[in-house]
Amino acid sequence: MYVDPKRNEHAGNLRWLMAYCKPDLPRAVGGLTLYAVSAAMALVTPLISARIVDQVIEQHQLQLLAKLCILMIVVTIVRDVAYYGNAMWMERFGQNTVFRLVSDEYEKLHTLDFDYFNHTRTGDIMSRMTSDTDAIRHLLSWVSYQAINCVVMFVGALAMMTSIDWRLALALACVTPFLFVLTRKLSQHAKPLFLAIRDSLASMNSMVEENIEGNRVVKAFVREDHETEKFDERNDDYMERNMDMALNTRRYMPWLDGLGFSLQLITIALGGFLVLKGNMTLGGLVAFSSYLWMIDSPVRQSGWLVNDWQRFNASCVKIRRLLTATPRIRELHPRTDGGDGHGAATTTDAAAPDHINGAIRFEHVDFAFPDDPDTPILTDIDFAVPAGARLGILGETGAGKSTLVNMIARFYDPTHGRVLIDGVDARDWPLRTLRSQVSVVAQDTFLFSDTIGGNISFGVDGGRTPSPEYIRHIAFIAGADDFIERMPEGYDTVVGERGVGLSGGQKQRLSLARAIADDPSILIMDDTTSAVDMETEAKIRRHLNELDGDKTIVTIAHRISSIKDSDLILVLEHGRIVERGTHEELVAKHGRYRAIYHRQLGAQSGQAQGYTTDDETGAR
Question: Per-residue b/e over 553-576, b at no fewer than 16 CB within 10 Å?
Answer without folding.
Answer: bbbbbebbbbbbbbebbbbbeebe
